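Bit of a strange request maybe. I'm writing a small parser for structure token strings and I need a real example to test against, not something I typed by hand. Could someone generate the tokens for this chain?
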Amino acid sequence: MDATYAGDYRLTGSDALYFYKGDTDITMDYSVIDSIKESTDLDISIFYKDTRILTTLTDENGARMVGTGIAPQIFKSVYEDGQEAFYNNTVIFGTPYYTYYIPLVSSHGNVQGIIAAARPSANVNKTIRSYILILAGIALVLTSLMIFIVISITKPMTRSIESIFAFVKEASGGNETVTLDENVLRRQDELGEIGESVLMMQRSMRSMMESDPLTGLFNRRSAHRKIAPIVAKARNSSESFCICIGDIDFFKHVNDTYGHDAGDEVLIKVADIIREHMKNLGFVSRWGGEEFLMVFDRTSLLMAESSLWGLLDKIRAAEIRYDNYVIKVTMSYGVSEWDKKESVDDLIRSADDKLYYAKNSGRNRVVSKIETGENDGNSEENDL
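Reply from user aminoacidic:
Good idea to test on real output. This should exercise your parser:
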């Protein structure tokens, strides 16, 4: 949450309450906790004082259980005493959970609320039983082998089992950076096969990551998820939002001239400039290749276009250093405003059409409107 939204939490309003983090209204923004729920199967709740404000927990009708309270003893130990707490017997709305609570501390050191991560006890116990069966099978094999092999072979095997167990524990707990001992992978036996299997599990978890590995921006998958609450908010207000697709001009020329490593450095630098520019305006994601998708929240087309020209000035002025080279690039942008009738896909296609128009009409520009009678942007682009 801190990486996504800057500032402290606060609750405002009298009749209708609004939950803010810094200057951002996150009252109905479940994107962060839903992504954690999807990738870890953990239920997340954020309490402001003793009231559940954001949660992945739902009732039998699918409604989120916001506005509910917390057990008094948990509130006292975590909120009032400022202590982290783990419970293996918490009952939430009639269901037993393993739950971990930590105090939510502001930048001034004051406890504002509580964050809870929970998993149903039945799921945890099932996982534990699976691990016990795996370990029991390995232990049985080890016991049989210890009759026939020398201690010098037994010790490395035991270390491999411990490495596998530690790896599985860390990976299943959500640690995506944990590595498996190379000695395990070099084994030509069942333990080596188990090692390969748990590595496949880790790769599957990494495939669900929400960020682009090169630039650190949101990836295409997470961009769609982040747009959804912006659309929902715009439908119920008089405010609108804009979507822009930007493309680095002549990027193929950069790769051909300086090499793909230099191209990667250009992508990283451009991503950093756009990320900094989009702070407090919306968000940016890497859309694919050298394309970036920007979403301007609560912004008119005129405001978004003006902001993009300012961003283009920053891109033009940037000097990207690679080895002994100084590389300068420009970008082309197509931007469209949502009109409350079209779908998000239609809006993205509109921005994409304007991007192609910008490319075909000279590049290094922002296009918010395709002039009547001109090329509509759908012809093939020859990006040298």
